[in-house]
Amino acid sequence: MIGSHYPEALARLIQELRRLPGIGPKSAQRLAFHILGREEADVVALATALTEAKRRIQRCRTCFNLADSQPCRICSDPARDRGTICVVEEANDLVAMERTRTYAGLYHVLEGALSPLEGVGPEALRLPELLARVKAGGVREVILATNPTVEGEATAMYIAKQLRPLGVKVTRIARGVPVGGDLEYADEVTLARALEGRRDI
User: Fold this and answer.
1) Which CATH number fits domain 2-56: 1.10.260.40, 1.10.8.420, 2.60.120.10, 2.30.140.10?
2) Mean pLDDT across the chain, nearest whole number?
3) Which of 34, 130, 136, 148 is spaced 20 to 30 Å from 27 by Cα?
4) Which CATH number fits domain 66-200: 1.10.1040.10, 3.40.1360.10, 3.20.20.110, 2.60.40.150?
5) What order of strands is seen across the sheet that includes strand 199-200?
């Protein structure tokens, strides 16, 4: 038990850090000791940044990207091609696509991928909102840029099936992204090639 080895406040800090994804007991302890070793002003700045981000950042009501305004900066940019929507699983995938500087359309963030084994079905994703955007008219192409994983592929196929009756062109990014990888960690050149080599689905 962590509390038996550390003062109560330190034990609580370690316990809270362990809640973060990818942070185990040892990493949580290292982070806690690092934080305590910083100047108080640095720790206050970190706490303020966390609080401000949680208070101010919300989901865009149109594309569900993380934003500090409604609609988000991408959705409200008049220079964007409104006839193309790129569908991604998470907001960090959108950031990865933006880094390529080769895509000038809009986005739709699903907030996940289909995963029956984990109980994530279509109703848990932002699929109704995507269909509503396409049905509203003006969309020529939907690019499916879900991750090249089993879940990502299943999600892409499901979305394609839902979109087909609506008469919109549906494409899938090419295999420039390695199977089993996440868009967040792909480099700009790989993502750019994947976008350029997208295909009908």
Assistant:
1) 1.10.8.420
2) 92
3) 148
4) 3.40.1360.10
5) 105-109, 81-88, 141-144, 169-172, 199-200
